[in-house]
């Protein structure tokens, strides 16, 4: 896969190294001439010393041939401009933009940039997932906030404990899929005959508006 990256800071640098380790073709656009030269010498990739929001610099980087362009500078306004040019002028199939300020994420999405990475939001969700006392933990949301990945641990008196996946399926809400069962150190990919046990941690994907219904189906009263 051919990947174009805008921004050679810490995020961009480690992204370059990771993608190269996975045998992808990478080209980088970096404003700072010293950093651009250093990354080129260290990694051997083509590095354009330029501005990712410049039409000419993006053209020099041949982003029109990229399968993916990811914009990871520390400035949201630059990321937004680069991403829009890549989509509108160069028709890059997949554009991923870093969002530094969580408040700007909705701006990106309203302008049609739905593949965004908000590290602050991701870390916040992880903290809440670890620290929450709620029975159902939200791991992260996706698809423009419409879907969510959740985790719930079954209790002895949970209505689905000691029942098979096939038995509980009719009682689950629409747009809900049971992804895996974490049992001790084991990860189980559930089938119809998989029996659910006390202390199983269930990982599921559900529509956000059905999250409470899913919790009730798996645990009974949402106040437990």
Describe the model:
- With 224 residues, the protein is an alpha/beta fold.
- The protein folds into 2 domains: 2-119, NAD(P)-binding Rossmann-like Domain (Rossmann fold); 128-219, Regulator of K+ conductance, C-terminal domain (Alpha-Beta Plaits, 2-Layer Sandwich).
- It is built from 8 helices and 11 strands.
- The strands form 2 sheets. It has a 6-stranded parallel beta sheet with strand order 3-2-1-4-5-6, sandwiched between helices.
- A hairpin with a 4-residue loop joins strand 7 and strand 8 (147-153).
- The chain starts with a strand and ends in a 5-residue tail after the last helix.
- The mean pLDDT is 88.
What is the gist of this entry?
This protein is α/β, with parallel strands linked by helices and 224 residues long. It has helices spanning 10-21, 33-43, 55-60, 76-88, 105-110, 119-131, 165-168, 211-219; strands at residues 2-6, 25-30, 46-49, 68-71, 94-98, 116-117, 136-142, 147-153, 176-183, 186-188, 201-207.
């Amino acid at each position: 896969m051919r990947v174009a990256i805008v921004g050679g800071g810490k995020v961009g640098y480690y992204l370059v190294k990771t993608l190269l380790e996975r045998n992808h073709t990478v080209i980088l656009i970096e404003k700072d001439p010293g950093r651009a030269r250093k990354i080129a010498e260290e990694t051997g990739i083509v590095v354009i010393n330029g501005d990712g929001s410049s039409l000419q610099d993006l053209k020099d980087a041949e982003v029109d041939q990229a399968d993916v362009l990811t914009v990871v500078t520390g400035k949201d306004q630059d990321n937004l401009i680069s991403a829009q040019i890549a989509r509108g002028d160069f028709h890059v199939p997949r554009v991923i933009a870093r969002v530094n300020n969580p408040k700007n994420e909705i701006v990106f999405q309203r302008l049609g940039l739905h593949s965004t990475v908000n590290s602050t939001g991701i870390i916040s969700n992880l903290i809440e997932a670890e620290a929450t006392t709620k029975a159902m933990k939200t791991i992260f949301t996706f698809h423009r906030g419409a879907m969510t990945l959740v985790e719930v641990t079954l209790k002895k008196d949970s209505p689905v404990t000691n029942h098979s996946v096939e038995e509980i399926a009719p009682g689950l809400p629409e747009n809900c899929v049971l992804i895996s069962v974490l049992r001790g150190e084991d990860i189980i990919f559930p089938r119809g005959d998989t029996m659910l046990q006390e202390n199983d941690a269930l990982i599921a994907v559900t529509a956000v508006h059905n999250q409470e219904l899913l919790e009730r189906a798996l645990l009974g009263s949402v106040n437990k």
